[in-house]
Amino acid sequence: MDAFAGSMVARGPTLGPDRETATGSLHVVSLPSVDAAREFVAREPNNRAGVYGEHLVCGFENLLGRTMWEFSSRTDEPMFLLIALPGESRHRSLERLPTALRERLILYGALTAPDADAGGAVLIVQARDRGAAQALAADALDDVSDVEVHDWEFGGRR
């Protein structure tokens, strides 16, 4: 994965309720094409080891304009990954988001898939619990009825 370090926007495992058991992973990487993204997936160590049953490749527009490493955490609250798949929800512009949400955003972006008519979105937020994370997502998305919520943490070498 070192070959992709300069292109990495965010990465980290999704976790079970115990916040110890890995259930999946998120990688947001700036790559030149879908083929390059598929190559990344093929080379990802956990994918090569057969850890993942499936994967999803989407286009991503970085609405924050920064990486997760530029986020300055103010608390030791947990982090949550919220995904509204393409075709299910629309994101709001960064300027329309409440300040309280913007301060908790680690990642915020629009998702696109070749076969979807509408865009989706992805957020990573720091919040006291899942309910608070979902409430924050309601300030960022037009429809939160089908938003996936995952416990999440910063990835990379430990």
What does this structure look like?
The protein has 158 residues and is α+β, with helices and mostly antiparallel strands. The protein has a seven-stranded antiparallel sheet, with helices on one face. It is built from four helices and seven strands. The model has no long low-confidence stretch (mean pLDDT 86). Helices cover 17% and strands 29% of the residues. The chain is globular. It starts with 7 loop residues before the first strand and ends in a 6-residue tail after the last strand. The longest helix has 10 residues, at 34-43. A hairpin with a 7-residue loop joins strand 5 and strand 6 (120-126). The protein has one domain (2-152).
List the helices and strands and how they pair.
Layout: E1 8-15, E2 22-29, H1 34-43, H2 45-48, E3 59-62, E4 79-84, H3 99-102, E5 105-112, E6 120-126, H4 130-138, E7 148-152
Antiparallel strand pairs: 1-2, 1-7, 3-5, 4-6, 4-7, 5-6
